[in-house]
Automatic annotation (TrEMBL):
Organism: Isoalcanivorax pacificus W11-5
GO BP terms, alphabetized: pyrimidine nucleoside metabolic process
Keyword annotations: Membrane, Transferase, Transmembrane, Transmembrane helix
Protein name as it appears in the record: DUF2254 domain-containing protein
Coiled-coil parts of chain: none
SUPFAM superfamilies attached to this UniProt entry: Pyrimidine nucleoside phosphorylase C-terminal domain
Phylogenetic classification of the source organism: Bacteria, Pseudomonadati, Pseudomonadota, Gammaproteobacteria, Oceanospirillales
Domain of life where this protein originates: Bacteria
Single annotated GO MF: pentosyltransferase activity
InterPro entries to which the protein is assigned, alphabetical: DUF2254_membrane, PYNP-like_C_sf
Transmembrane segments: 12-39, 59-82, 102-121, 133-154
Record Pfam families: DUF2254 (PF10011)
Length: 430
């Protein structure tokens, strides 16, 4: 399978080595440039008067040894933060830490200063050689910059462990994906067409490996189906796990394609060992839900964290509830060419609320906050069907409260919140 540029960039962005390596290479080039300038244009500064090559060498050696020590400290702190975040919140939130530009940059800064000093030491020459003033001054400034970065990194590590910042980062990363996958310029009056079933004689496009679908090029699939005069059926959503040998898609209403065509169809999909947010908005919702489930577990029992997750889910669902969803069917000149599979609003709402409702069924604060969120979403719903769906979920929350909340006053409090969504209390008063 081919790895498309946006997926490659996403994986590079989530790696801890790309940015540090780039900074290290940049510092090497900077040092070589300053050494060249010092050789061509000797400069004398009063700041460097009295300092010989031997003193400059000692200074660079001290900076280099201290920076490599600090780099090891930064790496250890990063691993400790990753371990704590995984245990306290969810292993899914590690993705945000790995993509954090500050963590990547700080590690690269200290390794870059260390490399700069090594290159500068090589270019000092003998003790009676001319002083490379710009190079030594660059090393001093880099050392001071390293001290500033260390202070900032300690502050950043402390801030990054706060659950508010973790949830805000997940929301900020998910919102643009939601807006791109579900644009607000879809015709709201268009009736969703029924999904036609895949015929029994369709040809399977099998997965070459086991993994999660991280990307699907529906435009390429539509073009290939048009060229073949057939229809491509995609039974999986982006983010689903497909074992090796199982069907990624089905090709119907056409003659048996050659191996090259099958390979081109297969290359329209990308699989990976983990999910990606590029075309999988539900993965962002999944990360938030995992944090709430950890907060509601008996070992943690942190109601406040669960409520903060619901606030972030409220933002994401608020973007979705007011947007008509695009069709999963694609036509070319009036002919059906692609039958895709994408999450509808009901499935995304269930993903966001079902497990939190189940784990927090005996928690009045969580249930009441969930009902308040559903009431606010009802005001933004773009159709009567969405309103009915929100009311249906409100009834499920109320049923959970009546079943698992022991205090009668708590139940009455939850009923009051439910009445906002349901538009009255007649049906629950009895």
């Amino acid at each position: 399978m081919t790895l498309r540029p946006r997926l490659l960039l996403d994986r590079l962005r989530a790696s801890l080595w790309v940015v540090p390596l780039g900074i290290v290479l940049g510092m090497i080039l900077l040092c070589e440039l300053l050494l060249t300038l010092d050789a061509r244009y000797p400069i004398e500064l009063r700041l460097m008067s009295g300092a010989g090559i031997a003193g400059a060498r000692d200074m660079l050696q001290a900076v280099a040894s201290s920076m490599i020590t600090v780099a090891g400290l930064v790496f250890s702190l990063t691993l400790a933060v990753l371990s704590q975040a995984s245990a306290q919140y969810s292993s899914r939130v590690l993705r945000s830490f790995l993509r954090d530009r500050v963590n990547q940059t700080v590690l690269g800064v200290f390794l870059g200063i260390y490399t700069y000093c090594l290159v500068a030491l090589r270019g000092l020459g003998v003790d009676d050689a001319n002083m490379p003033t710009l190079t030594i001054l660059g090393g001093l400034l880099a050392a001071f910059a390293g001290v500033v970065y260390l202070i900032y990194f300690i502050h950043h590590i402390a801030a990054s462990l706060q659950v508010e910042n973790i949830l805000a980062a997940i929301e900020a990363e998910t919102l643009p994906v939601l807006r791109r996958l579900y644009p607000d310029d879809v015709d709201p009056t268009r009736e969703p067409a029924p999904i036609p079933p895949c015929p029994d004689d369709a040809i399977a496009i099998t997965a070459p490996c086991s993994g999660y679908i991280t990307d699907a090029d529906f435009t390429a699939l539509t073009t290939l189906a048009t060229d073949l005069g057939g229809v491509v059926y995609v039974p999986h959503r982006v983010g689903d796990f497909v074992p090796e040998g199982n069907a990624l898609a089905w090709l119907a209403h056409t003659s048996t394609p050659d191996d090259d065509t099958l390979e081109r169809l297969r290359d329209a999909f990308s699989q990976g060992p983990q999910r990606s947010l590029q075309q999988d908005a539900s993965f962002g919702i999944r990360q938030l839900v995992d944090v709430a489930l950890k907060a509601l577990s008996p070992g943690v029992n942190d109601t406040t964290n669960a409520i903060m997750v619901l606030d972030r889910l409220h933002t994401l669902l608020g973007e979705l509830v007011s947007r008509p969803f695009p069709s999963s069917l694609r036509y070319v000149e009036g002919e059906l060419r692609l039958v895709g599979t994408r999450p509808d609003f009901e499935s995304l709402l269930g993903l966001a609320l079902d497990q939190i409702r189940q784990c927090g069924a005996n928690n009045p604060a969580v249930l009441a906050h969930m009902l308040g969120m559903l009431g606010a979403l009802r005001l933004r719903a773009c159709s009567a069907e969405r309103v009915a769906l929100l009311q249906h979920y409100a009834r499920r929350v109320l049923e959970a409260a009546e079943r698992d909340v022991p205090e009668r006053l708590d139940q009455e409090w939850i009923r009051q919140h439910a009445s906002i969504v349901l538009g009255g209390t007649d049906w629950i008063s009895g």
